[in-house]
Amino acid sequence: MEYDRMMREMGMTMDMPWTAADVFFTFAMWAVMMVGMMAGSAAPVLLLFGSARRARGPQGVPLAVFSFGAGYLLVWVGFSVCAALVQWALHHAAMLSPMMAASSPRLGGAILVGAGLYQLTPFKGACLTHCRSPLSFLMLHWRDGIAGALQMGVRHGAYCLGCCWALMGVLFVVGVMNLIWVAALTAFVLVEKIGPAGALVARAAGATMIVFGLLLVAGSPL
């Protein structure tokens, strides 16, 4: 299988207990994937921050933008650590298939239901509002200096994480390395954050995930 060959080339042992190197490679995989998936949705606030910073003076603009971006990425790197540890735990418990998807329909259904319910929570809505309003975010949370830019990036990354972490958990249902679903989730995140009806789309997706999750659980063997 192409997937197994790729995992072996990365040095990962999918059919036996993981080593520290396996955990590190898994973290690196998640980190690269999260950077790729979140870059598009982070672009508007980065561009707006760069313009606002330039209006205050041309000196230090590239470094400030870099610091903001670094703060944002730091949050998602932290999430990648957590995701890698969750994946290791599921692998250790023999609850993942070779495609890095939940091997139990009940577990997969529970993940979908949990992610769907989170989509409907006020906390998700509040985080999405911040992500959809980069100008409002900058006005409310502006900090001067390089350290301030880093702090702003971390704060915006935290809102983004609050908006999207449950969606990333869906990868444990469809397959962490399923590139089609990775692309689909990336597009969905963009629609949520940039589309004209992002909040409505988020709620509709939440309801859909709950339905499919319940169907998955109901169809699982006793």
SSE layout and pairings?
Elements: H1 2-9, H2 20-55, H3 61-92, H4 105-119, H5 122-132, H6 134-141, H7 145-169, H8 171-174, H9 179-194, H10 198-218
Helix pairs in contact: 2-3, 2-9, 3-7, 4-7, 4-10, 5-7, 9-10
What does this structure look like?
- It is globular and about 60 Å long.
- The chain has 10 helices and no strands.
- The protein has 222 residues and is mainly α.
- The protein has one domain.
Low-confidence stretches: none
Number of beta strands: 0
Query: What is the C-alpha radius of gyration, as a whole number of Å?
Result: 19 Å
Sheet/helix structural class: mainly alpha
Assembly annotation:
single chain
Mean pLDDT: 88
Binned, the helix content reads over 70%
Q: What is the makeup of the main sheet?
A: none
The number of helical segments is: 10
The share of residues in extended strands comes to: under 5%
* Secondary-structure element order, N to C: HHHHHHHHHH
Number of domains: 1
Distance between the termini: 30 Å
CA-based shape: globular
Could you name the key traits of this structure?
222 residues, mainly alpha, 10 helices
Task: Describe what is shown at a glance.
This protein has 222 residues and is an all-alpha fold. It contains ten helices and no strands.
